[in-house]
Amino acid sequence: MSDREQWSSQSGFILATIGSAVGLGNIWRFSYVAGENGGGAFLVLYLIYVFVIGLPLVIAELALGRRAQGDAIAAFDGPAPGSRWRYAGVFVGAGAVLILSYYSVIAGWALKYFTGASLGHLWDTASEGYGRYFQSFISHTGEPVIWQAAMLIAAALVVAGGVRGGIETLNRFLMPLLAVIIIGLAVFAVTLPGAQRGIAFLLAPDWSAFARAEVHAAALGQAFFSLGIGMAVFLTYGSYMPRSFPLPRSAVAIAAGDSCFAIVAGLAIFPAVFSFGIDPTSGPELAFITLPQVFLQMPVGILLGAAFFFLLSAAALTSMVSLLEVPVAILVQRLAMSRRRATALVGTAVLVLGLPSALSFGLLSDVRIGRHGILDAADAAVSNFLLPIGGILIALTVGWRLSRQDAIAESELQHPWLANAWLWVLMLMVPLTLATILLQSASAL
Ligand code: PFF
User: 25, 104, 330, 444: which one has the fewest Cβ atoms less than 10 Å from its Cβ?
Assistant: First the structure.
């Protein structure tokens, strides 16, 4: 596998991994989940889970991928070639396709809003109310599919361009731009009159929320989704990483970059929401119904709104690219397909598989899976089951199947106590915590 592609530079690699982590999860999902779970207390718990459970898993994924220098199947198969563990690679590949199938639908909504905000018709519709606007858009039969397809085509073009030419180039250009936009929006928001209440909501914890099991579950679920662990994205990106890149430092940059982005996004959103007297607990529609109303009332809001929806679409794109790369790498390696063909195949499969999600508020709005509509059910299946199962598989592979020396050497953790703590977290803490969450989710079905 000596002709396997590699990242051209460490900074390109870090930007691509942060690009994967930073997505709809940091802006759309973080803001409404934090809003529903009490703000500050949720934020503290989320940060604890990111660094205690998330960071060790990011190190594990990168180490396993770099060790394999191959796709997800090779990584799980590596410790004992030919064993059933290779199916764990198939599982995460299929899981990435499932995530993409509904993630691309929401990414499509963001693109529609960005286009509407830049061309102006998003603002002309203010009189009918954004609740109506959003509802009539997502319940349309053709439109959500078209916007979803547009996002998928963009992601496929990037992945078809290769690890350096496509993925690294896109992230090198977009990630610094997104950082500037989100910081700009936050600086603007915290200077609005009445912004303090929004800042306090996000940063001042209500300690009683710590005792509530559902706040813990929401924080852990958000940490997993926001980092994007469990579906072999870091494992696959890690397989293009040369030995010369420092592994633990890269993992810390990913976890810190992702959580900083979420906090700054919170600082852009909550002060504005409070400043205009809006309820922060409005749920998934916060970004698509509440915020356009807020933008409309702000000075230069039209410009800020366009910047916000550009940010949302572009952040979603860099995450979609990373999810697409997981199954594409598998097809290229297993079926000796060209990268272009593999990308076209996976992209088409995602579009077809995503149709029920795209239509779940219109044509298929009567279909219920348990308490959920189709898109919500896909999201719940991913955060409550798929990501935790993927996390357990990775933790068990590195913690139990690799030899102790091998695991520690691959992680590059220098201090013995750090290396031991890391292994201990992977061997016991991750499997036990995630198994508890899985049981809890299963009993809530
Ligand atoms: N981390 C991405 C986000 O915050 O939007 C979403 C994601 C990417 C989830 C990759 C899962 C994954 F494997």
Answer: 444
